[in-house]
Structure formats: C-alpha cells, structure tokens
Amino acid sequence: MTQLSPTLELAKDLISRPSVTPEDAGCQELMISRLEALGFKIERLPFEEVTNFWARRGDSGPVFCFAGHTDVVPSGPEEKWQFPPFEPVIEEGYLCGRGAADMKGSLAAFVTAVERFVAHHPDHEGSIALLITSDEEGPFVNGTTRVIDHLEARNEKIDWCIVGEPSSTDKVGDIIKNGRRGSLSGTLKVRGIQGHVAYPHLVRNPIHEAAPALAELAATVWDEGNEFFPPTSFQISNIHAGTGATNVVPGHVDIAFNFRFSTEVTADALKTRVRDILDRHGLEWDIDWVLSGNPFLTAAGSLVDAARESIRTVLGYETELSTSGGTSDGRFIAPTGAQVVELGPCNATIHKINERVRTRDLDDLSALYENILARLLVKA
Ligand SMILES: [Zn+2]
Question: Is 264 annotated for ligand binding?
Fold first, then answer.
C-alpha cells in the first residue's frame, strides 16, 4: 500500500471523529496539537455547547486567517453508505466519508500548508491565524460570530481570510466565492374575519385579500443585480390557512417567504418595500423578520489577486469568481473589513450519502494554500 500524504492522513483522522453539529469530537485538539508545535498561540473559546478556537502565529499585522468548521451534518441512514460514514476509506482516487468535502479535507489542507510554509519561512511577515468552529452547519449562534465579537472587542483585526468551504465545481479552484447573497426571511400574517362561507357580507376573507398583494410581491423586480450578483430573488415558501372545513372562511392566512438579495439593496429597503405593497392593498398584517446574513463582497484586492495567481501558477488554469450558493461564515468575517474568499474542494457530494473528495484535490488544495501564504506573507 502506498504511503498517504500528510494532508490525507490528517483528513482521515478528522473524518474518523464523528463530529455532528455541535459536537467537535476531538477534531480541534488534533489540529491544536499540530499548530502548537509550529509556535501558534492558542485560545480555546467554547460558547455554550459549541467548541471554537483562535490560533495565531506572530504579533504583527497583516493577519492572514484560515476559517473553517469541524462539525458535519448527520450521515443519514448509514446502511445506504458504501462505507461507514465515519470510517474513512480511500477508493479509486477518492477519500470517502462524512466531512471529506465539507470541510475536513480543507482543515487538513490548512494545517499541512501552514506546516510546510512555516518550515520554509519561519520568520514570515505579519501573522497566520486559524478561526475554527464546531457550529457552522447548525444555528450559527455560538460559533464564528462569537469568536469575531471576541476579537473585535479587543480590536484584533483579520486582513485576509480564506474560508475552506467547498467552492469548486469540476476541479479544485475552478471557482472561488468572493461574496455571498444576503438572506432575509419573513413570516407574514394577514388577518380577516372568520365566518360562514354562506354569509360573505359577515366575513373578510384574508386569502382573497392577500392574493393580489402576493401576486405583486412575486412579480416585483427588486433590483437588476450587478457584475457580481444575480438579481435579488423573492420566493414564497409556504402558505397556510383554513380551519379544515370547506364551509368556513378562515380568520387569517400565514405566509412564509425568503429574499436572497444582492448588494444593490439592503434588508431595510426590502422590508420597507414589502410593507408599502401590503399597505397599498389595504391589508391588516404583521411580519416577523429574520435576517440570517447580509450580502458581502470582496470585489478585488490583494487576496483575490493572490488566489487567482496561485491557481494559475500551481494548477495551470484560470479561476472564476462567483457569489452563488447559500450563506457561509464569511458573512460574519467580512463586515469587520476583512477581505474574504471561499476556496475549497468540489461540492458535488456535500451533505449527501457517500460524500467524497478526490485525494489529488486535497493535495492540490494544500499546495494552493501554501502558495497564497507565500504571496501575502513573504517579502518579495
Ligand atoms: Zn461547510
């Protein structure tokens, strides 16, 4: 049997710890022991049931940070997996197991990239940091956002951040995410007057009253998007009303909806426009809003340049910038002023049965991370 690379060895070791959110299952201590050996100063930052750490090597700026999560989503029915999800196996060039792509492979690549980089450049410029949480796949209340609050409170800033989320499509680095859309959800209640369908003059049907307003919301163009973002999208995800009887007009209708929005609008502007439409239709309504993330964008700058240049040099192809996909912890880091990009392995199997990643991709990813560090933290 051929010897595995240090990146694959570490990735296997991490996958074999069943760290379903918010469990960490010892993954972070494994990373910490490797980082301490390189001279990193470690701060363990547990909040409630969530395990987090901040590690930093160097006292000066600029600060380059790798961000990621040790938690994984549940495996689903284990008998459907070709191999047990928490017993990593390498087969036909793929590393298989829960978290292989999202994102224990990236965590391993962070560590081995830093190990090689520090061996070559023990006196690098600035600082290298890692921000690791066990709560990215969960409620994201006590994870990255709390660590960022902690750093902000003492004015410790991140200049550049690579989030190891699986950004790639066909080959590693073909796509990097330089931003994400915002996500704003609402639960709308429209009230009417309940009564017997046979006495329409005694009722006010909230479904009838809401329908034209919903049609207008669905047809509204919220913005045109821009160079980096598709147009803002509004989607109704649920409508519920009724008492269960066909002869009763219900007293209210509940509607759930979500905006995925670009940097051309703000959450407040969207709220105002929704309220205006509801009022124009004369509805009696209220809404509970949940803003799960503002959009962020790192349009250009030294981090995007370094990532692009490294992909060209190490892998020999051009990368594409994209802001598609769901939200990520980048949304908590970018508002501090950091440049943030997501660069990780291919995402075809994330959260699925038989999650897997090409072994070659993890070694390439580690080489990329090392090359990016050299571009940013070594004086030419
Ligand atoms: Zn992830």
Answer: no
For 272-309, the pLDDT digits (tens) are 999 999 999 999 999 999 998 889 999 889 999 999 99
Over residues 307-365, the pLDDT tens digits come to: 999 999 999 999 999 988 777 889 899 999 999 999 999 999 999 999 999 999 999 99
**Is 136 an active-site residue?**
yes
State the distance from the centre of ligand 1 to the C-alpha of 1, rounded, in angstroms: 31
Of the candidates 23, 24, 115, 136, the residue annotated as catalytic is 136
DSSP class of 232: P
Output DSSP code: residue 85. T
Q: Higher-confidence residue: 136 or 151?
A: 151
- Using CA atoms, how far apart are residues 159 and 356, in angstroms rounded to an integer? 32
Element (H, E) at 304: helix 302-310
Helix ranges restricted to H, 96-232:
105-120, 144-153, 206-219
